[in-house]
Structure to design on (132 residues):
C-alpha cells in the first residue's frame, strides 16, 4: 500500500504543478481576497477529502478487493446527495431518489448474491425430484 500511496501522491503533485500555470493565467489569484476561511476550506479539501479519501480507498482495495472498491465508488453520488441534504439543506428531488434507486439496483446486480439465491432455489427443486 505504501508504494501505491507514493504513486498517487506523485500523480497528484504532478497534476497540481501542471495545472498551476493555467490557474495563474485564468484565475489571477493575486486579485482575489483570500481570508482564513478560504485557506481553511482549501486545507480541509486537500487533507480530508483528497488525502484521507485516497488512504481509505487503498485500504479498502487492499482488504476487500477491486470489485468492492468499485461498489463503494458507485455509492459516492448517494453519499454526496445525503450530505448535501443533511448539512447544506439541499432538497432531495424525486429524480434524485429515482437515481438512488437505480444505483441500488445496479449494485444488487453487480454484487450477484440475488442471482446466486435465485439459481440455488431453481436448482434445489429439480435436484429433489431426481432424488425421489
Amino acid at each position: 500500500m505504501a508504494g501505491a500511496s507514493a504513486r498517487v501522491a506523485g500523480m497528484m503533485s504532478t497534476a497540481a504543478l501542471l495545472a498551476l500555470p493555467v490557474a495563474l493565467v485564468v484565475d489571477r489569484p493575486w486579485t482575489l481576497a483570500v481570508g482564513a476561511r478560504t485557506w481553511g476550506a482549501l486545507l480541509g479539501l486537500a487533507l480530508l477529502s483528497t488525502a484521507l479519501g485516497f488512504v481509505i480507498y487503498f485500504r479498502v482495495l487492499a482488504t476487500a478487493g477491486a470489485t468492492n472498491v468499485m461498489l463503494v465508488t458507485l455509492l459516492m453520488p448517494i453519499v454526496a446527495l445525503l450530505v448535501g441534504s443533511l448539512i447544506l439543506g439541499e432538497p432531495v428531488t424525486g429524480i434524485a431518489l429515482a437515481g438512488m434507486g437505480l444505483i441500488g439496483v445496479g449494485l444488487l446486480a453487480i454484487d450477484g448474491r440475488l442471482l446466486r439465491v435465485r439459481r440455488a432455489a431453481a436448482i434445489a427443486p429439480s435436484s429433489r425430484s431426481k432424488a425421489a
Remarks:
- The chain is about 85% helix and 0% strand.
- The radius of gyration is 23 Å.
- The chain has two domains: 1-64, 66-132.
